[in-house]
């Protein structure tokens, strides 16, 4: 479900319905130079390709570079990952007075507060 140009109450209500029924939810809007986008994908599983790190055998090379791990770009492995997305209601209800939230404040875009 993709929504735009809706009130905050409608966005929260539709997201709750989607989350309950395991339906992916996207919303976004633009206000002049500022905008937002939110995605609630519920439980999302995906596969990420990682480059294997080759281990250097001791005594094979000399010098300061021997301690650094070497990347072997020809060998990769697939890693399965799982992400659990939060609902819009939870994202909008953050208590900014806590210590953990104060640390996250520096990484939070100012546009988040415009949506509030």
Please describe the structure with a list of short key phrases separated by commas or semicolons:
alpha+beta, two-stranded antiparallel ribbon, 26% helix, Rossmann fold
Describe the protein's architecture and organization.
This is SAE1 enzyme. The chain has four helices and five strands, in the order βαββββααα. It is of the alpha+beta class and 116 residues long. It has one domain (1-54, 73-113): Rossmann fold, CATH 3.40.50.720. A three-stranded mixed beta sheet has the order 1-2-3. It has a two-stranded antiparallel sheet with strand order 4-5. The chain is extended and about 55 Å long. The chain starts with a strand and ends with a helix.
Average pLDDT, rounded to a whole number, is 83
Q: Any guess at the CATH architecture?
A: 3-Layer(aba) Sandwich
| Amino- and carboxy-terminal Cα gap | 22 Å
Taken in chain order, the helices and strands follow as EHEEEEHHH
CATH topology: Rossmann fold
Total number of domains: 1
Shape: extended
Name of the CATH class: Alpha Beta
CATH homologous superfamily assignment = NAD(P)-binding Rossmann-like Domain
Low-confidence spans: pLDDT under 50, at least 5 residues? none
* Oligomeric description of these chains: single chain
Strand order of the largest sheet: 1-2-3
Task: Work out the helix count.
Answer: 4
* Portion in strands: 35-45%
- Structural class, please? alpha+beta
Biggest sheet character: 3 strands, mixed
DSSP E strands, number? 5
Rg over C-alpha atoms, rounded to the nearest angstrom: 22 Å
Indicate the percent of residues in helices.
25-40%
Protein name: SAE1 enzyme
GO molecular function, one term: ubiquitin-like modifier activating enzyme activity
InterPro entries: Ubiquitin-activating_enz
